[in-house]
Amino acid sequence: MTLEELHQLFLAHPTICTDTRKITKNCIFFALKGQNFNGNAFAEEALKKGAAYAIIDEEEHKTSVNCLVFDNVLETLQQLASLHRNKNKVKVIALTGSNGKTTTKELINKVLSKKYNTIATIGNLNNHIGVPLTLLSINENTEIAIVEMGANHKQEISFLSKIAQPDFGYITNFGKAHLEGFGGIEGVIEGKSELYDHLISNDKHVFMNGDDDVQQEKLKSYIKKIGFSTKDHQYYNISFIEANPFVVLEVEGHQIKTQLIGKYNFPNCCAAVLMGKYFNVPLSDIKTALESYVPQNNRSQIIDKNGFQIILDAYNANPSSTKAALENFKNMTAQEKTLILGDMFELGKDAAKEHQAIADLAKKLGFTNVFLVGEIFFQVQTPFKKLKSFNDLRSELEHSPLKKGTFLIKGSRGMALERTLDFLKV
């Protein structure tokens, strides 16, 4: 069977499943492989549960004429997604960056959906499987697709760009994330910039933060750039008003009062405003969209519980995002501030140095009630309370309950610090 013929089958059965626990009637099951599983072994089960076809790459698992054998299931999924993207008259906006990708994607989608039929990456399904699945959710009514791209090593963004073939792109920032895979901050800049490299080489449009020195340098001679800035009048000007705790910005004399905390979310809002203006969304609709967006999934959420005000930013953490969160927390008007910080992962040889820097920053900013959680933080030199594991934190707080106040909880996903909410009691 050719890729074109598979695409025709997909149009007749436009739902893709990669997990037999989530099979829907008449879907197409792609038998992907992982470190601990072989999807080929589940092809027969997928068909019995109602899948119309199963795409496999091991002939011995062909138990039905509805098992279609290709050379490589993952590559077939990626090629099908790229073909499908090309057959639809849809504008694709790709975005990547070290911090704020998912929030920015949600904000852009919120704004553009005021005028257009949009689809966007679900959650943070932004890798070599998630990007194809997003593209395959495009249908004949889709006008704009917003595709988030994640990476933890070089050439990954370049590869995803070739699959998605974006018409527009935006990089949120370049920060100290995935240093282990990228080999340092210069590697991060080089890796994330692969999106701009792809767009420039294909003469496509680039959205940019005109206040970001790296982006300024990268795009200084490129004509097809659309930027925002707080000061440079060659770009669309947006003013930062405050973040105490919620971000307020001013656009064309109108204040937009968001439900996003932290000055670090200001450029994320600006990107959504910029794209809204570019695609002719009325400013009143842009304002409504941004003001109605409420963050979820442990991303800068504000939660009131048992007399505690909690800034829950426990979805992920790296040195850049943690530094920004600490500086924002310092500037917030609140009493009895407490920090609960968890280990930051994927920092490789820089892990010890970066954790020490965060502990030093917390001290420099004047925080006194600080809990550092995790095996890496446990090694730093600091006057703060150090706890080797989450269970140690639980024991500490159950033995010595905290006073009411305002808390910042931040750590990498693997730390799952949102569990702290379960035992914050007066």
Automatic annotation (TrEMBL):
Keywords: ATP-binding, Cell cycle, Cell division, Cell shape, Cell wall biogenesis/degradation, Cytoplasm, Ligase, Nucleotide-binding, Peptidoglycan synthesis
Coiled coil: none
Domain Mur ligase central residues, every copy: 96-275
GO cellular component: cytoplasm
Coarse class of the protein's main subcellular location: cytoplasm
Binding site for ATP: G97, S98, N99, G100, K101, T102, T103
EC number: 6.3.2.10
Pathway: Cell wall biogenesis; peptidoglycan biosynthesis
Keyword flag Nucleotidyltransferase: no
Family of this protein: Belongs to the MurCDEF family. MurF subfamily.
Described purpose of this protein according to its UniProt entry: Involved in cell wall formation. Catalyzes the final step in the synthesis of UDP-N-acetylmuramoyl-pentapeptide, the precursor of murein.
Protein name as catalogued: UDP-N-acetylmuramoyl-tripeptide--D-alanyl-D-alanine ligase
Species of provenance: Flagellimonas pacifica
Name of the gene encoding the protein in the UniProt record: murF
